[in-house]
Amino acid sequence: MKLLPNTLAALAILLPGAAPALAQRFVPNYDESKVPPYTLPDPLVCADGTPVTTPKLWRTKRRGEILELFRRYMYGRSPAPPKQLRFRVLEQSDQALGGRAVRKQVRIFFGPKDKPALDLLLYIPKSKQPVPAFLGLNFWGNHAVFPDPAIRLPESWMRPGPGVVNNRASEETRGGAASRWQVELILSRGYALATAYYGDIDPDYHDGFQNGVHGLLDPPGARPPDAWGAISAWAWGLSRALDYLEREPLVDARRVAVMGHSRLGKTALWAGAQDERFALVISNNSGCGGAALSRRRFGETLWRINTAFPHWFCENFKKYNNREDQLPLDQHMLIALIAPRPCYVASAQEDRWADPRGEFLAVKHAAPVYRLLLGPGVFPAEEMPPVNRPVMGVLGYHIRTGKHDVTRYDWEQYLRFADRWLQKKAPR
Ligand code: GTR
Fold this sequence. Notes:
It is a single chain. By secondary structure, this protein is α/β, with parallel strands linked by helices. It is built from eleven helices and ten strands. It has helices at 5-13, 20-25, 55-75, 183-188, 212-217, 230-245, 263-274, 302-308, 331-338, 356-374, 408-422, and strands at 86-96, 101-109, 117-125, 131-138, 192-197, 251-261, 280-284, 343-348, 391-392, 395-400. It has a ten-stranded mixed beta sheet, with helices on both faces. The longest helix has 21 residues, at 55-75. It is globular, with a radius of gyration of 20 Å. The N and C termini lie far apart (43 Å). Residues 12-13, 262-263, 287-288, 300, 305 line the site of beta-D-galactopyranuronic acid (GTR).
């Protein structure tokens, strides 16, 4: 069966932890005139009040301060990469897509134990040179990304959904999320696609951080209030996938765009903010805790996200429920951490829950950092553009018609943006 966007959106709201009572108690604000007045922290002023007037000061002082704020107060602190990552090629074929591509399925072992482990699926267009790539986590297993019978079913826990039997994926969902991945289009443009199931890294429910990489890597004893949550774990997993890509001769690991949708868009931003090896970052409908400014409290709010998904962020973040103005950070600073590397944020008109205007404003308020590092012209938009009219500088943004989803239209823009920056040397 197909995982229709509507079904996906409905499921996303009915997740473990999101009790129906919660949805009833929370009334999101969708009225722009009711957005409270707010002042954003200035990414270009250091904690001691020093204005950041040179790229050097940004690099040596302010960037580190902001990174530390996100680690301490929001996503939590991730561990260092394991000393010895192990990789095993599970399957490989040079006959994918009618012979136009190479398919590889590689297991990445995070530790001495066999589990948890990440199964990375790669489609690589045949080329004489190593190719640039898009890397992103998927919601429903690698087999859902493309209707190819050779893609292995995930073995990890899967949240309830159509075609999921006893929390395990089944044949029924093979190719079910293909519209979100556009494999043929991506490959026809000369890019590889690398993807993995996010539940391989950390299952998406609150079990007190026993399973997934938390169980494998957390020191024993009480968890500190800045211990990493699930979003940090998924972002850490993306960096381990990049560790593999650095060893993959068919891919140019210096030209990897990290991309994600919704909670995995939050994850892509956080991965790109921390790991400067990612050459380009794409956030698709990431919303609250992703690209949207928290202080606007439009659609989903900190209280709502921390209550419905208590395992996503670190414990400290919950102290800011209904106290957004006290936060020492906001999401424009997350995008600023990606500077000077290209970053693209996409919204959808009907996805009010994710606050499209808040996503646009975060890009706009990150632009001064890009300007300091690169000069004028980094983001050619002062006002939010009309629907289906992308703006592209080193920062890019669009709001398209339609719902919370990833569509062919979105991918067409990401490919145009990547053509600009990954086919030549992108700023780093
Ligand atoms: C929603 C959540 C959003 C977004 C979305 C998704 O329920 O409130 O923040 O992450 O799920 O990931 O699909």
